[in-house]
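Exercise 7. Predict the structure of TraM recognition site of TraD and TraG from Streptomyces lavendulae subsp. lavendulae.
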Amino acid sequence: MPSPRTSTPTSTTGTDFLLYVLFAAVGLGFGAGSLAWLFGNLAESLIGSSGPWTAYEPMAALLHASDAWPRLPRVALVIACYVLPVLTVLAAALVGGGIWLRLRGNPKGLAGQRELASLLPKEGAAKSISLRPSLTGSKPKNVAPNDRGVLLGTLQPGRREIRSSWEDVLLAIMAPRSGKTSGLAIPAILRAPGPVLLTSNKAANDAFTATFDARAGVGRVWTLDPQQIAHADRTMWWDILADARDLAGARRLAGHFVTACVDESSAGDFWSTAAANTLTALFLAAANDGRPITDVLGWLASPADRTPVDLLHDVGLEAVAAQLHGTVAGAVETRDGIFETARQYASCLLDPGIASWVTPPSNAAEVWEFQPEAFATSRDTLFLLSKDGGGSASAIIAAAADAVMRAAVIQAERDGGRLDPPLLAILDEAANVCKIKDLPDLYSHLGSRGVIPITILQSYRQGQRVWGDTGMDALWSASTIKLIGSGIDDADFADKLSRLVGDHDVPTVSVSTSESGRSTSVSMRQERVLPADAIRALPKGSALLLATGIRPALLGLKPWYREPDADRLATASAKATAAITERAVGKVVDQNEFGKAA
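Solution. The predicted structure, encoded as tokens:
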């Protein structure tokens, strides 16, 4: 007895596709024939005779229309039996496709509109009303889009806008030239309903020039540019010691100078800890005596100077004075090592051009003092610009950003717990020019106070370099909205994302044959929704959205240059860039003339 022949299970996607095409063709032909029969009879009733309708024969009506209605004019016959059915089928396909896209779940295992309902206009508007007292009493349909939250992009496939709420805190990991500035930072700045803070290491043809003019029409624009990234005139100064009058504030300020110079692997050793304690004591002494921060440089240069110790005694800070005295009176080699380390941390203040931005000006009438407390309740914009690398003013930038966010939190507590309108803090190049040591801890409560940070990194490892593995994991976990852009070349991180996105069921068709005939079986197997290589190959202008409590979704970014007013913004950006160039050229000319005169 011959044994049955069994073929190795194989996928039959090609056969299935042809079968589906056949079914679709039959369905379209039947539908078009039915429409041709309907419209042909209607045309006959209106133009020809009023007799009984032609018998229902769809294919005859479609293929032999002239035989079915011989008395109809040819033009009417073509319109009724061919043009109108085609237009009706197309219209039905468009409407049906739109409804299907709206109601269906994402077949690839990613989130669709139903899962992202909380980030869509209806629920987003209702939530913004509950979060912002100024919107109380408004109807959700009357809430402006920009009052709902930060625009993240549009759901793919489709065009529905996805916005975070005003209590979400954001983390964006995007490689250079993946759209992080044009598709995220700039649109967020332009749409912000309240004050905006931006850190950056670029000015020309970047967020600074693209948004300067627009934000100037909303409120005052402050530019802290100690290293002349934008060659901005010094029309503002900030008292960097304003919050250093108590021990906690002085320690935070010292921490910014330390963090700007060391990475996580070097933090916490003897020399960095001792130098941080010394800077804390010196900042505390200068702040309580109303001295500029530049006096600290003089004390660092002369470790034996007892002035800061005496000033600490005068204000009752005996323990801090004793600690500083112990350092000064200790072994000379140890003391000099500590003070030299502290001098390296504060070295950016040696540049008078940098120090002038954080010390009282001589011409107070022309230079305005920036006050974080007032900024928190305004609609102003603060641009914090600095170069990265050694000798940069990144410690000052981090201290300013930290002061603004903490002032906003204090103001929110005074206003009942939440800042309205919210403050948007876009920390672009955060790992280079805005290293706030405890940023992961701040993330856990900033959103609940109406302070919305958007930390933008180029890679996950960049964050690990600044905050360490534990700190970066904490920042990742505390971020309620995460955006992953194109250019993720870290294999471990890409695999981690792939596992977070998860698996979905994929049908596998197997065919076997025997003497009794052919049988087909369908089994399900699990497959990664987005393998690591697919995450690495995300196209530019797209981003993977990971929101708390929601399946991951794929978004298309909405860059500013594709908006309706892009021409106006481009013109303003070009004008601002030209102004930067003109100021830079003017300084070069001045330097050359000074050299000739000398």
